[in-house]
Amino acid sequence: MNHCKTLTLILFLSSMLAWTANAQRIDLNLKDVTVKEAMETLKNRSGYSFVYEAGDIDARAKVSVKATRIEDAISQIVAGQNVSYELRGKNIVLQKTATGQQKVKRTITGIVKDANGLSVIGATILEKVNRTNGVVTDSQGRFTITVSEGSPLIVNCIGYKQIEMNPGVRDNLDIVLEDDMQLLDEVVVVGYDTQKKVNLTGSVSSVSFDQFNNRPVVQSSTALQGVAPGVTVTTGGGAPGSDSGTIRIRGIGTFGGSSASPLVLIDGVQGDLNSLDAALIDKISVLKDAASSAIYGSRAANGVILVTTKRAEKGASQIAYRGYVGWQQAVTRPDLVNAEEYMTLSREATEHDGGESIYTDEYIKNYRMNNWLDPDAFPITDWQNLLMTGSGLTHNHNVTMSASYGKIRTMASFGYLSQEGIIKSSKYDRYNFRNNLNVDFNDKFRMRLDVSAIYGHRKINPYQSAVFNFMNARDPLMLAKWSDGSYAPFTGGSLNILPMIENGEGGNQKSDVLRISASFGLTYEPTKWLTFDFTYAPRITLSSSHKFIDLVKYHSDPYGSISSITNNSYNYLSEGRNYTVYGNTIFTASFHKTFAKAHNVKLLLGTEYDTRDDNNVSAYRQEFTYPQYDVLSAGADNEFKNNSGTRAGWSLLSYFGRFNYNFKERYLIEGNIRFDGSSRFAKGNRWGIFPSVSGAWRVTEEPFMVPVKNTLTELKFRASYGELGNQNISDSYYPTAQNLTISSISANDIIYPMVGLNVLANEDITWETSRMLDVGIDAVLWNKFSITADWYHKTTDGILMRLDIPSSIGLSAPYQNAGKVRNVGWEVALGYHDRKGDFSYGVNANLSDVRNKILDMKGTTGGSGVIRNQEGSSINSLYALKCIGMARTQEEADEVNNNCPQFNQTTYPGDLIYEDFNKDGKITDDDRQIIGSMIPRYTYGLTLDFGWKGLGLSAQFQGVGKVDGYLSGYFTQPCVQGGTFRKEHLDRWTETTPDGKFPRLSYASELNTKNSSYWMADASYLRLKNLQLSYKLPQSWMKKVRLSSVMFFANATNLFTLTGYYQGYDPETGYQSGTDGATAGSVGSNYPLVSTYTFGVEIKF
Amino acid sequence: MMKKILLYIVTIATALSCSLDRFYENGPSTGTYPSTPDEALSGLLACYKGLANTQVQYCPFPFRVVDQLSDIGTIRVGGAAYESLVTSVATPSAKVPGTAYTKIYRIAGRIHLVLDNLDNIKVQMDPVEFAQLKAELLLLRAYIYDMGCQFYGDIPFIDHCLSLTDYEYGRTPKEEVIDRILSDIPDELLDNLPVQWPYAQWGTCRIGRATAYALKAQINLNWGRYAEAARCSKIAMDLSDGVYELDPLDVTYYATAADGEPSASNLFGFAGEKGSKEWMWAAQYNKLAAANIHAMTYTYSSRNANGASYFGPSQSLMDTFQCTDGKSIVESPLYDWSNPWANRDPRLDLYCLRSDSRVMGIGYDLNVTKSEVMDYNTGKMTNNNDVNGNKSEYGPNGKKGPGGYLWRKFVDRRYYVESEITGTKMEDELDCCLMRYATLLLIDAEANIEMEGGDLARARNDINTVRARVGMPGVKDNTQAGLRKALRYERKVELCAEGYRWFDIRRWGIAAKAVDGTVYAPGFSTKANPTNYISNAKPVIDDDWVVKYDGTTTWNGAKFNLRKLLTMIYTTGRDEVWPIPETEMETNPLMKQNPGY
What we know:
The complex is a heterodimer of chains A (1101) and B (597).
Chain A: H1 3-17, E1 28-34, H2 35-46, E2 49-51, E3 62-67, H3 70-77, E4 83-88, E5 91-96, E6 105-114, E7 124-127, E8 134-136, E9 142-148, E10 153-156, E11 163-165, E12 172-177, H4 181-185, E13 187-190, E14 193-196, E15 204-208, E16 231-235, E17 245-249, E18 263-266, E19 269-270, E20 281-287, H5 290-293, E21 304-309, E22 318-330, H6 339-352, H7 361-373, H8 383-387, E23 393-405, E24 408-420, E25 427-440, E26 445-460, H9 464-473, E27 490-491, E28 494-495, H10 498-502, E29 507-527, E30 530-536, E31 539-549, E32 553-555, E33 562-566, E34 572-595, E35 599-622, E36 642-663, E37 667-678, E38 687-698, E39 712-726, E40 741-747, E41 750-756, E42 768-781, E43 785-801, E44 816-836, E45 839-856, E46 867-868, E47 877-880, E48 883-886, H11 890-899, E49 912-914, E50 929-933, E51 937-948, E52 951-962, E53 964-966, E54 1016-1018, E55 1021-1032, H12 1035-1041, E56 1045-1059, H13 1067-1070, E57 1090-1100
Parallel strand pairs in A: 2-5, 6-12, 18-21
Antiparallel strand pairs in A: 1-3, 4-5, 6-9, 7-8, 7-10, 10-11, 13-14, 15-20, 16-17, 18-19, 20-21, 22-23, 22-57, 23-24, 24-25, 25-26, 26-29, 27-28, 29-30, 29-31, 30-34, 31-34, 32-33, 34-35, 35-36, 36-37, 37-38, 38-39, 39-42, 40-41, 42-43, 43-44, 44-45, 45-51, 46-47, 47-50, 48-49, 51-52, 52-55, 53-54, ...
Chain B: H1 2-15, H2 37-51, E1 73-75, H3 80-86, H4 95-116, H5 127-152, H6 174-184, H7 187-190, H8 199-202, H9 209-222, H10 226-240, H11 265-268, H12 270-275, E2 279-283, H13 296-300, E3 311-313, H14 315-318, H15 347-351, E4 352-353, E5 357-359, E6 362-364, E7 372-375, E8 380-383, E9 406-407, H16 413-422, E10 432-436, H17 437-450, H18 456-469, H19 480-494, H20 501-507, H21 511-514, E11 517-521, E12 540-541, E13 547-548, E14 563-568, H22 582-587
Antiparallel strand pairs in B: 1-3, 2-10, 4-9, 5-6, 7-8, 11-14, 12-13
Helix pairs in contact in B: 2-4, 2-5, 4-5, 5-6, 5-9, 9-10, 9-17, 10-17, 17-18, 17-19, 18-19
C-alpha cells in the first residue's frame, strides 16, 4: 500500500476518535485501592450509593476489584468485612453480621439450581476459609454444610461458573449457578471475528492452550496432532529445527502441483504456525467446512487454522517462567545382523546364484579371532552406534510478563529453545520475542500493537541426509577406522561418512531465519451496534543459508600417510540470502443488533489487500586454501565463482461479507461471500467468487425442550454448503507464463549463453475450486458430556495438473485445471469431564475418516515409482505387483514357470509369486495394480486427564486405523544395492526352512525385489504420543515463598507405538501422505522421529 | 450517520483497491523471443546443447547405448531397460525408446522456437548470416527426424511450435518425412555455410558446410538413396580436403599389462576432442556449462579404474577382429585360440579392453587368483576390484557383470586421474563425436558400392584408407559383393561403440540373424581354472561378418567354455522399429502404434 493511502486511513480513524457517547456498562478494574475509594468509583460509574453505619466497615482496607456486574463489584469491595448487603433502589445497604462469633459453627442448608431453575446435582460447596470442608449436592440439588460463622461459601460445578457467596444471617440458601462459558458460552475465533460456540453454524474445532500445555512442543504444528477430529498431522522426521508436522484438514483435496496445506492466520494475519512459540498460543480454531472458511475465499480450500496468542488480562499482572530440559533419542532403528550372520547370509545368497563365496565355514568361525588379531583386515563395525552419537539434549525457557494498568495492557515474552540432534553437529537454537500491547483509550476506541521477532538458527550436518541411509545399509564387515584411529576411505563402494559425522570434517551447513512481524490494529465502536476494525500487519522474513563443503582426506592404510583419496576435488562454499516482505491490510465493519429481543442480526463487511515480494541472491566460490575461513572472499577469485539473483511477488485483493441471523439463538443462519483477485493469474481469470451458506437449529432452545434440559443440555443440528478456492497452485508465482531458460553451452572450451524453452506456457489456468457440503450435530448431555459429529462431502475441481501431453509438442507439460478429487468423510469428537471431591478426570476422544477418490484426471495417470494417481483410486495410491505367495517347493516353482513365467526369469523355490493381473499368462510390469493407499483413514486421538489435588496425569494417544506404507531397497530388502541384512531376514526361505518368512536370498535374481504387495506394510499405529505427570505445589505453601504458583512436570513423547510396520522404521514417517508429491520407498533414509523425555517447571510470581 | 458510515467504508474500500499486477521479469519470456540476432543464436545453441544428453543410461544418442542393443555389445545383467529391447519383449513403456522420442521432439521444439520467429529479425540480419542460422536449424531437424524415422518408422512431422490447442498430429509416412527434411536442406542453402566454423571460436560445435554435406549423405544413405548419398559424400570429401583427415593411431601390440597400454586417446580422448583433424562435428560437454556432463566413461570403465563396468563389447565382436593378415580368425593361420590377442587387427586392443591388459594406467585382470593389480600411475599394487570385493559381482567376471570385456575406445586416462582426485566418478566432459572423417569415408564407400554404377574403386580406396591407418592390409577384391563384405567388417569394427550398429544391421537387413540366439560371455575365472576366461569356442563367421557359436564346437576339442549371458530374440515385423512411447499413445488421439507392440 502506498503512503497516500495510509494517510487516508489515518485521517479517517482519527476523526472517529472524536465520536463519543456515554458508557452504560460497569467495567470496574481497580487495583489496591481503599474500600472508600472503591465505593466512590462505583458510585461515580453506576450511581449506586453505599449506606452503612460508620465502624461497621474498615474503609481504609485495601481491595482490588475486577467486575462487570454490580453485585460482583459490591461483594469484592466488602469482601472480608463481615457485612452482608442488600440492594434497595439505587442504594446498597450494608449490614454488619454478628461479630466475635467467627469461631461459632453454624449449619447452612440450601439448594443449587441453574439458570433455568433446574437442580444441579454434584455441585461442590466449600467453606472459603477452610477449603477442606466441603459437601456435594444430592440428586435434588440439596446440601447441608456446617461452617464457621461468617465464612463465605464457594459453589462449584463443572459446566457452571464458580460463585462465591456470603450467606449472611441466612441459614437456607437458594443458589443459582450460571452456565460456564467453557462449555456453552465458549467463544471461538472465526474468520475476522469471534462467535459463541453454541451459535456456530459451521464446523469448527477449537483447541486451547491447555491441550498441549506442557508438552515439549518445538514446532507448533505438532501441537495439533491428535487433538482435533479431521485434522491430520504427520511428522516426517526428527531433525532439529525441521521436525515440523504436515497438517491436512479433512484429507487431501489436491495433488500434483498445488499446495494442500491449510491457511494459517495468527491473530488474523497470515503466518507460519511453526514460527510461533507454542507457549504463546492461547487458542487455535480450525475451520473445517466451507461455510466457516469461505470468508477466506481463494486461500481456504484446504481449511483454515486461526491462532490467537495470549494477551494480558485486565487487572492481572504476572511474571511467569516456564522451562524444561530433556533429551531425545530415535524412536526406533533397524536391527541389523552381526558379522557372522552377515557372512552366513551373504554366502547363502552367493551360493543360490551358483557362485562360490569366500565366507567358508572356516572363515566365519575364525572371523572373531582374526578380528582380534588383525582388526584392519577383519573388521567388525557397528555403524549405528558409531554414527548416532549426538546428545539429543533439548531445553526450552520461556518468560512471560504481563501487566495491566488502567487503559494499557501489555504482555511481553521471551523464549529460548535449544535442541541438539541425535547425530553430532546437528542443532537448532531459537530465540523469540513477542510483545502484545492493548490500549483502551476509552470505551469506544481501542488499539492493538503486536510486535514479534523470531530468530532460528539451524546447524545442519552437510551429510545429514545421507547418514541414516548409510548406517542402516553398511554391513558389519566394512572398516570404519584403521587400528591407529585414522579413518578408512571406502566402505562398500562409497566414501566413509564417519569423519564427517563423528569429527565434523567435511564442512558445515547453517540455516538462519529471522522473522519480524508487526500487527497494528485499531478498533472503533461508535455505537453499541457498530464496530470498525483496521489492521495493518507487515512481515519481513530474512533467511540465509550457508553450505561449506570441505575436503575430507582418508588414510589408505594404517600408520601411513594421508592418501590422495578425498571426498571431493575442491572445497566450495555456497551462500544464499532471501528477503521476503509481506504486506497485509484488513479493514472490516461489523453491525450487530438485536431487534425485539429475539432477532439477532450481524453483518460484517470487509476488504483485504495482501502482498508478497521475494528477493533472492546466491553466491558461490570454490577452492579455499584456508578452509577455516569459510567466507566467500576467502575462496579463489577464479572463473568458477558464481552468483545469481531473482525476484518475484504476488498480490491478492479481496472484498468479503458475512451475514448472521438468529432467532432467539434457536434458529441460526449465516451467509458468507468473498470476492478475490490474484496477480498470479492472467487478466480475465483473475477474479473469483466464493460464497457459502449455513444454518443450524438448536433444538434445546425450543420451549418444549425445557423439561429435558437437565439431561440434554444442548442439541444442535447444523448444515452448510460453500465454495472455496486454492490459489497456491504450482510453485511458480506466475504459473501462467513461462520464462525461457537461460543456460550455457561450451564450444572449444568457450562458454556461450543459450536460451531455450522447456515448459509450455498456459495462460488459461485459474483457481482450483472446492465445493463442500457438511452436516453436523453438537450435543451436550448432563452438562458434562459433549458430542460433536460431522459428515462432509467435498469435491475439488480444476486441480492443476501437469497432464501428459504428447512428446511431439517438444516441451514439458504445463499445468492445466483438469483434475477432480472427492473427499467424503465423517468425524466424531467426544468429551467428558467430571470431578469427585479432590479427584477430577476428563476424557477427550476423536475419530475421523475420509475416503479419497480421484474422479477425473482426463484419462491420464500420475505419480512415480510405486506412487500412483489414477481415476477411481485415492491420491497417492500404491501401484505394484500383487504378491500371492511364495513357491515353497520345486513343484510350486515349476507350476509358475510352466503356467505363468515371471519376467522371463526362472522362478526357483523360495521366490515370490505374483498375480497375473491382466491374465496374459505371464508376469510383467503390466501386471501392476493398485495395492494400497497412503492416505490415512480412521485417524484418532484420545486424551485422558486425571487430577488429584495438585497432581495431574495426562496421557495423549494418537493413531491411524488404516493406512499402507511402503519401503523398499536396502531399507527392507536383503541382497540389494550392496546393503547389509536385517535381523528379521534370518527368517528366510532355505531348503531346510521352506516356511521362512522372507524369500530366498539371491544377489542375481530380481524377482523378489520387484515392487509388490509383499514389501508393503501396514502403517497403521497406536501411539502414546505424550505422557505427562505434573505436580502443583499446594497453594498454602505459596504465601511463604511469595509465589503465586509453582508446578513441576515430567513429560515423555512417543513413548510407545503399537504397529505392524517394518521393524526399525516409524510408521508416521513411512508414508508421506501429507506431502503434495508423495514419495515412497526411500523415506527410510529420513532423519528418524525422536522420543523426547523432559522435566520442567512453571513458576508464576 | 448512516451516510457518514457508508462514506467511510467506501473511502477505505477504494483506498485498498490497489493494483493486481505484480510480475517481475527475470529474463526473456515467451512472446517477445527472439528480439535480436544474438538471442536467435542463443536459441540455435540451445538446439546444439539438446544433443548433449546427460541421461547416458537411457538415451540412445548421442551416446552409444544402441550398440549395446545389438550383437556387438553386452550390458550388465538385469538391466531390464535394455534387455527387453533385444529379447523382443519391450512394451510401449520401455524406457530407452521413451527417452529417445522425448529427446527428439524436445530438440525439435527448441528448433521451432527460433525458426517460427526468425522472420521477426530478418531485417536486422545479414542475409548470409540469416541463411546460415536457418541452414543449421534445418540440418539439426533433418538429423533428428532421420533418426526418429529409423527408430520408430513413421513419425509426426512437426514443423512449428505446438500448443495445448494444436498438437494432434498423426504419423507422417517416413518416406515423406525424409523427402521433407531433405528438401529443407537444398545445396543452395547449405552453400551459405563456411566449410568449417572457425575452430578457435567454435571447435567442433557447429555444423559447417563439409559436415552439412556429410550429414546429407548419411541421411540419403540411410534410406537407400545411394546416388544422392554418393554425390553429397563426394562434395563433403572435396570440401574436407585440407581441413579434415584421418589421425594416426599407435598400433603397437602390448601383450600384457606389464608391456604397456594400447590407447586411441589421441583420437577418441580429450586430445582428439581438442586437436583432432578427424572430428567434424561433436556434441559438446563441459563441466563449466550448466547440466553439461555425462557418465559414459564411468559406465564403460573397469572397477579398478573407478568405473562401473556397465557396458562392454560382446565375445562375438571380439571374435570379429581379423588377424593381421586380413583374414578372419577361423581362416587365418596366425590365430592361436590360447593366445587370442596376438596378431589381431590392432583395433581390438585400441577399441576394446580384455584381460591381461592395462587401462588408464591400471591393470585389468579377470584372473581371480590375482588379488592385486599394478597401478602404473603410482607404481603400487592395488586391490583387483574387478574380480574381488563386494562389487565384483557387477564386474566383468561377476554374475551380474557384462560379458568379460569392456570398451576402451572413449576411455581417457584423464578420467581416472580426475576421479582419483575428486572421488566423483560420474562427471565426465569428453565431447561426443557425431561425425568424423573416417565415418564420412565409409558413407562414401557404401554409397558407391550400393548405387547402380557406383565407383567401386573409389569405395575400395575409402575402405583401404581407413584400414591403412591401423596397418591392416588393403582389400583387394573389386567386386560389389566383396566390397560389401569388406565394408560391413569395416563399419562393425571401425565404428564400434559409436552407436551405428543398431541402424546398420537394420539397413542391411541382417538384424534378424545378428540379433538372435544366445549371447555368450567368457567363462568365469575360478581358483581351479583361473584362465577360464580365454574362449575355446570356435565361431562361425558369415559373409556379413555376423559371428555366431553353435555351443559345442571348440578349437581344442575340450568342453565349450563360454557361458550363456542372455538369449536375444528378434521378431521380424516388429523389432525393425521401436514402439511409440506409451504417453504419446495416450495423449495423441491420432497416434497409431507400430505393429507387434
